[in-house]
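Standup notes
- HV: blocked on the assembly model, inputs below
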Amino acid sequence: MTYKILHIDNQMVAARLLVLGIYPGKTIELVRKAPFGGACYVRVDQAFYVLRRQEWDSIIKQELAGS
Amino acid sequence: MSRKLKVALIGNPNSGKTSLFNLLTGLKQKVGNFPGVTVEAKTGRLQLDNGQECDLIDLPGAYSLFPLSEDEKVLSRSLLEENDPYHPELILYVADIRMLDKQLLLLTQIHDLGWPVLVCLTNSDQEDSAVVKNKVKLLSEKLGLPVIAVSNRTGENLDQIRAYLTGTREKSRPQKNTSVSAPQTADLEALGLKPTGDPIRDFGSLVRRILSPSGEESLRSEEVRIQIGDTLRRYEQIDRWLAGSGSVQQTGGDPQKSRLTARLDSVLTHPIWGLVIFVGITFILFQLIFSFAQIPMDAIDLAFGQLSEWLGARLPESGWSGLITHGIIPGLAGVIVFIPQIALLFLMLTLLEEWGYMARVVYLLDHILSRFGLSGRSVIGLISGGACAIPAIMSARTISSKRQRLLTTFVIPLIPCSARIPVYAALVGFIVPEATVWGIFNQQGLVFTGLYLLGISMALVTAWAMNVVMKAKETSLLAMQLPYYQWPQMTQVWLVIYTRVKSFVLEAGKIIFMISICLWFLASFSFPGEMDRARERASLEADSLGLVGEQKDNHIEALVLESSFAGKAGRWIEPAIAPLGFDWKIGIALITSFAAREVFVGTMSTIYSLGPNSELNTLKARLGAELDAEGKPFFSSRRSLSLVLFYAFAMQCMSTLAVMKRETGSWRWALGQFFYMGALAWLASWLVWNVF
């Protein structure tokens, strides 16, 4: 599923994601989730990242049509 | 003599920084595929064209000057503090040409601090040459800095870097008013800083303030807000540059590698298969190490035994020949016998890391480990702990949460390190015989696996208990980039193995070797006349017991050893360890093992080669021939298990304690670790000896 990042709710998370290249306006794809509430494997542009579930949840996002 | 130029190598993790460092200096050191492998700033010497030398400093990889982990603080501090030992005069900024949209952020910050910078774009051989040309032109125009496109595979254009460093250095200092994001007056005032009108000075004081926060909660949030605003402005500027220069594509990575990585990860990070593969890889790793390393290790053991015997027969009978055959040779053997295992373990760990797999393990295990109060990033430390606790504890610096970092470093020494292997290897044969179970598994290999699982479980249980006791205050972050899979560069892998083995032989080996000689001295001498008296007394005793021949000699040798300095020390601690089934000979080994665990083997060799079974070549044979008071083998399976468990849990490594003290800044945690692990070891051994 692909989303457009609107805002990041938690300031500390926002600061961290920002330097990694994940910030409002970017398109983020949720590739898979580790089982039992584990980490999220996401893709932004051509790069892959691991986000903890809370970090993923603090991204306010809009689902993109056709994804 | 002219002063050496100090140049710092700076860039994001995975920018190709460390391999460029190796190419430039030829110095052996580690290249990371996992973000933040280069934890220590390392220095190498670079030969310039005019015969001069300059010092190249490899600073830890970072994404931004605003640090989020201890690791990133190293970078900001070295740039801002002129007294910092790593404070450079010039910066070599390294960025992967395929990921400029992400990797330029830090460059713009350094540029805005007014530093003279030479920009090196790596992986230029992977890009179209027209694109490379365009990007070089773009950067040098926009930032007013010299830019060189290089290849860290072929070494192309490295001579240009050297030529630049040889020439004038002042050229690259940026002119004023080229700040990419000048600090805003309102922001500065919000933090209580006075705007000076000079963007370089203002940005410097802004970074300094964020680096050493005021500590006030309200200001902290303001600091983060300003930091985010600044970073966003920089990204906007970078995007504008890249978009505005027509043919420069904006990919954010390498599409081809990205496709391959996505396909591999669909299996390797699969919710079920990913975990199965991880367990499989770990299992194979240890099986390989034990089956492959055993052959050269046995050969080394045997060769030194025979050398000692051969020399013993030829050298004249004197104190010196005893020093050589019973002190120096067993000491050397104790060092060299380790090499196959250390080399193999580092080979496997480095291959996995270089390939990019370690970061996937973080993804797979983060959640499980967070239940124990650890972080996914702890995995690197916990797995490296299987080789040696010292680099493992240092690798924990990349964990941003202080508390998780502390927990990780506290439990790492419980993970069975390679120094325990020789102890286990010497004793496992006395616990279970050599046999095959279920057709394929080596029974002793299974005991080894069990000991590893025990160590790992104890580490997790300890972390869990500490996590319950120390309540969490700060939120921790995991977010990290997963590197693309790539073939390990074998030259880099060999460099790592070579460096590790060399440092083991030179540093740990030196200690082991010296302790072996000291031990030989302690076991061979005593207060004047005491050993002679012991010999006479033993002889009389043997006669009264009716012992003759070999039995009499054994009795005498044992009592003489007991009267030596070493025997006295062993006797002294015997009351404390007798409840565990240990005698004073093991006591000597325990004392010396506090220097380092592996010393156990050397100590036992020395003690038993002086004892009654000196004709046997290997330590295993000597231990096996040792009898207890009832004439049964002394190293029974119960006593051996008790001893193995003691070594599994006790903190017997001075170097680890020293590193722990350095990393936590006080002796508190190091001593806590020492006593906690000691108590654990004593209890486990006591249980085995008395209950089961």
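- HV (later): unblocked. Chain B is about 60% helix and 5% strand. The mean pLDDT of chain B is 80.
- Next: hand off to the docking folks.
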